[in-house]
UniProtKB/TrEMBL annotation:
One of its GO terms (biological process) is sucrose catabolic process. SUPFAM superfamilies: Arabinanase/levansucrase/invertase, Concanavalin A-like lectins/glucanases. GO terms for molecular function: sucrose alpha-glucosidase activity. InterPro entries: ConA-like_dom_sf (IPR013320), Glyco_hydro_32 (IPR001362), Glyco_hydro_32_C (IPR013189), Glyco_hydro_32_N (IPR013148), Glyco_hydro_beta-prop_sf (IPR023296). Residues 346-473 form the Glycosyl hydrolase family 32 C-terminal domain. PROSITE patterns: PROKAR_LIPOPROTEIN. This is Glycoside hydrolase family 32 protein. Belongs to the glycosyl hydrolase 32 family. Residues 12-315 form the Glycosyl hydrolase family 32 N-terminal domain. GO terms for cellular component: cytoplasm. It comes from Mucilaginibacter pallidiroseus. Keywords: Glycosidase, Hydrolase, Signal.
Length: 481
């Protein structure tokens, strides 16, 4: 089947065929999670963007749906979000039905070619049948470009304290906030970030969310940036602060990254999930996304992640961990006693199977240098480790598989350790061609794709003076039927 191809991820969503980049329009509505995505149905490279569509009841198994939005005379359909307009503020509902309203960027390729600077504008479309079919609003665009070349990726939510819709929009080197009573007329509220955070590239795909820590409410602003990520190319930074309906004020000026790895970009959260915040990223990097060696499809999404706040050394950080629903895919959970892990012992021998996709969780009483080496019978290896002297985690994919397709691909990615705890806790999600590392409760994360010749059938722990306390390995079922 389409899902048995070489490199095809078995526990992650990817399009049945052709190209994807950013997740769009993430929403939980009437018990269904919707994932729309940047899609070019005619090719495995980026092109005229559509919104593809997939749905899920549990965040892990997905059903491919028909294309939701096609390019039109106003341009390609770039990234954006979806809200359920329960009060019918837009007037787009009919017969008491709540309209789903998509707010997206129309990118006019002709305008871009002609040298205009106003070729990105915000438009809306609505669905009255649970996202199956969409009608574009007749008076698009609803938010016109004021002369800023990069003017895109609207993320909208209902700001209840002031009864208004709030839009975060990427506007070149900053985020601009707009508000609206009806999703059709938008008013500028404020700007943020011109002098804060990473600025090695253009700002994209913002998301403003609120989370509580010890009963206190904070606001977190997610901002993707390309290039300028900590390991090169694309990455997503975040700011923790306050928001008063008009202005976002950060608590400090430290730049933090939700994931330090090369392959977690353009991630935003699902609407409709209440206090639970679920983040989903594109598992790719613009440095080489158009060149990765898959054949009939290109690129995928990360595992959905649950966000929370953690306080560390008096500062507030965002932590992300795989959603608990991933556990639904576990066939069983094998516990590996630390004593069985004599240096060089093969974990897969101890648990008597080498699963193609699995989660691994281990804790150590004290954190020293270690390496986890995944190896296959083709002589390739993927190394995950911690460097105590430099206090950082790393993933080395330089010998993990095919890297001939791009000079930008091979190498080691690092994530600084943020936690100051003595003990440590590490979670890995490994799939046919991806690895996600969540360290210290999700404070230091690394996501990386790789393209091995053969499945990884050996897993060794190399640690001289560190004892693994507990290790659990859960082989995962494939999400594809
Ligand atoms: C981010 C991005 C967005 C844009 C979309 C185009 O990866 O560049 O800013 O809307 O991709 O596909």
């Amino acid at each position: 089947s389409a899902y048995n191809e070489q490199y095809r991820l078995q526990a992650h969503w990817s399009p049945k065929a052709k190209w994807t980049n950013d997740p769009n329009g993430l929403i939980l509505h009437n018990g269904t999670y919707h994932l729309f995505y940047q899609h070019y149905p005619d090719s495995t490279v980026w092109g005229p963007m559509h919104w593809g569509h997939a749905t899920s009841k549990d965040l892990v198994t997905w059903k491919q749906q028909p294309i939701a939005l096609y390019p039109d005379s106003l341009g390609y359909i770039f990234s954006g979000s979806i809200v359920a307009d329960e009060k019918n503020t837009s007037g787009l509902g009919e017969g008491g039905k709540t309209p789903l309203v998509a707010i997206f960027t129309h990118h006019d390729p002709k305008g871009e070619k002609s040298g205009s600077s106003t070729y990105q504008n915000q438009s809306i479309a609505y669905s009255l049948d649970e996202g199956q079919t969409w009608t574009k609003y007749a008076n698009n665009p609803v938010l016109k470009n004021p002369g800023i070349k990069d003017f895109r990726d609207p993320k909208v939510f209902w700001y209840a304290p002031q009864n208004k819709w709030l839009m975060s929009l990427a506007t070149k080197d900053r985020i601009t906030f707009y508000s609206s009573a009806n999703l059709k007329n938008w008013k500028k509220e404020s700007e943020f970030g011109e002098k804060l955070g990473g600025h090695g590239g253009v700002w994209e795909c913002p998301d403003l969310i609120s989370l509580k820590l010890n009963g206190k409410q904070y606001w977190v602003l997610l901002v993707s940036i390309n290039p300028g990520g900590p390991n090169g190319g694309s990455a997503t930074q975040y700011f923790v602060g306050n928001f008063d309906g008009n202005k976002f004020t950060p608590l400090d000026s430290q730049t933090r990254w939700i994931d330090y790895g090369p392959d977690d970009y353009a991630g935003v959260t699902f609407g409709g999930t209440g206090d639970r915040k679920i983040f989903l990223g594109w598992m790719g990097n613009w440095l080489y996304a158009n060149q990765v060696p898959t054949k009939n499809w290109r690129n995928a999404m990360t595992i959905p992640r649950e966000l929370s706040l953690l306080s560390n050394k008096g500062r507030v950080f965002l932590a992300s961990t795989p959603v608990k629903e991933l556990g639904n895919l576990a066939m069983q959970t094998e516990k590996v006693d630390g004593n069985q892990l004599t240096p060089g012992a093969d974990v897969f021998q101890v648990i008597k199977q080498s699963p193609a996709q699995f989660t691994l969780h281990f804790t150590t009483p004290q954190l020293r240098d270690y390496k986890l080496v995944l190896a296959n019978d083709a002589g390739e290896e993927l190394v995950i480790g911690y460097d105590a002297a430099k206090t950082r985690y790393y993933i080395d994919r330089s010998k993990a598989g095919d890297n001939s397709f791009s000079k930008q691909f091979a190498g080691v990615a690092y994530a600084p350790r943020i936690s100051s705890a003595l003990n440590s806790d590490l979670k890995l999600v490994v799939d046919a061609s991806s690895i996600e590392l969540f360290a210290d409760g999700g404070l230091s994360n690394l996501t990386s794709v790789f393209f091995p010749k053969a499945p990884y059938t050996h897993l060794k722990v190399e640690a001289k003076d560190m004892k693994v306390e507990n290790m659990e390995v859960s082989p995962l079922k494939s999400i594809w039927k």
